[in-house]
Amino acid sequence: MDGRKSFLLSIVALALAGCQTTGGDVAPQNFGGFSASSCQSGSNKCVVTISVAAGKSCTDSANITISPDVLEMKGRKGPIVWVFADKDYEFCPTKGDGVYIQSMGTATSQFVNWGGTDKENGDEETQTKDKCFKRFRMYNYNSDSAETDYYYFIRFTDPLKKSCSKDPWVRNG
Q: How many CB atoms lie within 10 A of CB 160?
């Protein structure tokens, strides 16, 4: 497990080094015009859908939509699963793809069990070298005593094998 954590932290460092922010210059408290959405439902997991505008390139983050764009966890604990609206996109961990919390600090104990998965329910899957996945998952403990905003970064691969990214928010508490 320590090797996997080290690998993921290395990927996070690489993602941060090459990250171009689109909405990250806006303080998380005002969400820059985003509409915060609750991730509570009858399901045991939160599902976040990644969509790319039809006929547009995902290399321009303005063409990527995340729904909900801000996760309001409201005390909820459990897995968060990111899925694509279009089956042609994927998370390729060896290319640095995934979902990464930008400001790790206390997030290291809040968000665990990160990884790609092809399982519809978002369950963990063995990470195989060079394998790409249709979903990405992590477990959110949400043990913050007060509302805490976590800025995160999504990187994925398009059908032409180009890298695409977006940077939305999670609000715990």
A: 9
pLDDT range class, residue 122, cuts 50, 70, 90? confident
CA dihedral of 87, 150, 113, 14, whole degrees rounded to 10? 80
Residue 113: CB atoms within 10 A of its CB come to 13
Q: What integer best gives the mean pLDDT of the chain?
A: 74
Tell me the mean pLDDT in the region 54-75: 87
* pLDDT score recorded for residue 8: 35
Lowest mean pLDDT, pick from 10-24, 44-58, 76-90, 94-108:
10-24
Q: What is the DSSP string of the chain?
A: -HHHHHHHHHHHHHHHHT---SSTTS-TTTGGG--EEE---SSSSEEEEEEE-TTS-TTSGGGEEEESSEEE-TT--EEEEEEESSTT-BB-GGGT-EEEESS-TTHHHHEEEEEEE--TT-------TT--BSEEEEEE----SS-EEEEEEEEEE-TTS-EEEE--EEEE-
